[in-house]
């Protein structure tokens, strides 16, 4: 046990030496590493991790921690503001709340659903409950005046959803403008690619937005038709399924054809056996848990 503890300590110290170093391969290819967060406390961990920003702010956690009460616009703004100011010029990608699925929120009643993972969730709720999302959009916009904040939409399956999300964003902008409240008029818009439908229309989607982020967790479960939470499926649940690899390639090609940026923010982003493939196909950014940042940097720096 002591030997293992010492080895672990040595490993951590070695990784600490990589702080401040670039994410660059031996042949000079760069890739950004950002961190995934869900709470105010996580922001501190991102700073400690030496990540180059926040690649995925899972807003639903700000609702989950409030129990049966909804967080106010001001409360959301304060957390996004902290993220924006702490990251300085680095990117902060705020995903609007992906309620439902495996993240049920007490304050948002979605009714009984037999299959919540493929039920009313993510952007679909926004299509039905605009008033629930408007404070979030306003909070994100207000924070965009204070740093490098962008907004991202989850569980996209159609162009209509993107149009509806953009329309709500415009409505929030107009309100803020009328109130003379500061925001970034050119805030970048991204969509998550986490449904096979989004993969198939990724060429069209790429023309509508500034960036993509692949959510491999949902994309994998929806592609395989297997519940990511069901331990009985562990032996069939293949994160390296060739279908997923092909999808990632297709999406990367389509987004790059439009000269836009692509990130991966699902669990696969931190899988070091995948890093070389991601670098090879030109993924621009990997977003991982804060404690995985330096290990990923080490891996990238070892690639020829
Ligand atoms: C994903 O689906 O890969 C993702 C990043 O979103 P979440 O895990 O929050 O569903
Ligand atoms: Mg997801």
Secondary structure elements and pairings:
Elements (H helix, E strand, L loop, with lengths): L1 H15 L15 E6 L2 H10 L3 E6 L1 H5 L8 H15 L3 E5 L27 H6 L1 H15 L3 E6 L5 H20 L10 E5 L2 H5 L1 H7 L2 E4 L1 H9 L17 H16 L3 E4 L10 H6 L4 E4 L4 H10 L2
Parallel strand pairs: 1-2, 1-8, 2-3, 3-4, 4-5, 5-6, 6-7, 7-8
Helix pairs in contact: 2-4, 4-6, 6-7, 9-11
What are its keywords?
304 residues; alpha/beta; 8-stranded parallel β-barrel; 13 helices; 8 strands; globular; binds phosphoenolpyruvate
In short:
This protein has 304 residues and is α/β, with parallel strands linked by helices.
Terminal Cα span: 35 Å
Q: Which strands sit side by side, in order, in the main sheet?
A: 1-2-3-4-5-6-7-8
Helix proportion = 40-55%
Class from secondary-structure proportions: alpha/beta
Number of strands: 8
> What ligands does this structure carry?
phosphoenolpyruvate, magnesium ion
- What gyration radius follows from the Cα positions, in whole Å? 19 Å
Biggest sheet architecture:
8 strands, parallel, barrel
| Shape type | globular
Order of helices and strands: HEHEHHEHHEHEHHEHHEHEH
